[in-house]
Amino acid sequence: MTERTIAIGDIHGCGTALETLLSALELTENDRLVLLGDIVDRGPQTRQVIELLLQLKSDGQEIILIRGNHEEMLLDALRGGSLSQMWQTYGGQDVLDSYELANVKDIPEDHLKFLQSSINYWENDSDIFVHANLHPQRSLADQFPQYLRWQRFTGQEAPHCSGKRVIVGHTPCGMDSLTSGTSG
Question: Is the pLDDT assigned to residue 173 strictly greater than 70?
Fold first, then answer.
């Protein structure tokens, strides 16, 4: 039985901050972690972040990883896709530096598989978890991945047609934004 569902957004390679947060949360085996994407890039410790999350998962912690735009860019760079240069500009080099590597293809396979296992969204009985945003009048199955990963939350969105609360990361906000809408 799950005690708590804990959403954490946009870790961005900040391993020390993640360790501090997880310590303060005093996780139990009954807690579920929903990572709202962007666990990689920008910060100096992407490798350590993924190692910590893989260790938690290996220890039995339930972890759900939502794909953010930074995971999308990294995985696209892995395939040699069109976002490769953008990834380098927006934190890719920080990832490579954390692994002391020159090529994204040299990142350990278990780390890449973890990132590849990320999903577009996750929902429970009362909430929908996405990285960036969702279209309020589209069912979850009909959402565009581009919207889920890149569209900034404005606080002016209509409630989702499911009636569920929407939990997002991606967009920085102040405390006044947290109290003003039906989406979070």
Answer: no
